[in-house]
Amino acid sequence: MITAVRFLIAQRRLADFREEAPEVDTASVEQQAGTIRTSLGRIKTVKSKLTEIDACSANIGEGADRLRAEVRTALSSIEAALRVGCSKKPVAVDMRRVSVTAVSAD
Question: What is the pTM of this model?
Answer without folding.
Answer: 0.51
